[in-house]
Amino acid sequence: MSTTTFPTRSDAVSTATAGKDYLIHVNKGASDLEPDWLLVGGQRSGNLNRKADELDASHKTSGGWACHLPGLRNWSIDLESVVLLNDEGAQYLEAAFNAGHQVHLKFEYPDKSYYTGWGSITEFSLKTQHDDVATISGTISGDGPLSELQRDEEEPVGETGGTEPDGETGSTETGGETTGTEGEEHTGTGDSTSGDSTSGTGNDDPGTVTDGDGDDEEDSNG
């Protein structure tokens, strides 16, 4: 199947995003160091609320103006989702609520960046109106801060394969004989070790035979 490439908008900072692309996941793993993220199915809304207590710092000499300082900060998520039978994410949230356990969750942006944090499920309601689909609504109240906005590192595509050395550098086989940096070079042309030469050409004594070791032997018939 062919893949279509679309251009990237240069002024993406002004590009709006769709609310449907923000998703909530819960960690079903054994630790927050090695999370196993599970998407909560049927999500309709997942509102991330962040606020700080308002401290009144007004005094008589503030020129008649009220003064305020931020106090303790907190966050929460208001979640609403359609009831999907056998949805593992919704079942996990319900089990955590019934057991009184905190949950480790991920709030994911459309570009796959996300926040993580621990929270307690302080509301988990089931709505079953006669003229609408059944829905779950709940609140997860944060325990401690949210993480910094982060993004997973890309998985390596793969390692480039190579060939293993054969133990002798540059060794190759040609015609059944091996040549290399650790072996003698043998060629069949003009080398007496490639076979016995019985030809009398170039030999002053026609009755002399040159064997493979280069020794001259007299022909008994000569």
Provide tags for this entry.
1 helix, disordered C terminus, 7-stranded antiparallel β-sheet, single chain, globular, two-stranded antiparallel ribbon, mainly beta, 222 residues
**Which class best fits the helix and strand makeup?**
mainly beta
The rounded Rg comes to 41 Å
Shape: globular
Oligomer: single chain
Largest sheet features: 7 strands, antiparallel
Number of strands: 11
Which spans have pLDDT < 50 for at least 5 consecutive residues? 155-165, 167-176, 178-204, 206-210, 216-222
Walkthrough of the structure:
The chain is mainly β and 222 residues long. Helices cover 5% and strands 35% of the residues. It contains 1 helix and 11 strands. It has one helix at residues 88-99, and strands at residues 23-27, 37-39, 43-56, 68-82, 103-108, 114-127, 135-142, 172-174, 177-179, 208-210, 216-218. A 7-stranded antiparallel sheet has the order 2-1-5-6-7-4-3, with helices on one face. A hairpin with a 7-residue loop joins strand 6 and strand 7 (135-142). The longest helix is centred in the middle third of the chain and has 12 residues, at 88-99. It is globular, with a radius of gyration of 41 Å. The protein starts with 22 loop residues before the first strand and ends with a strand. Residues 155-165, 167-176, 178-204, 206-210 and 216-222 have low confidence and may be disordered.
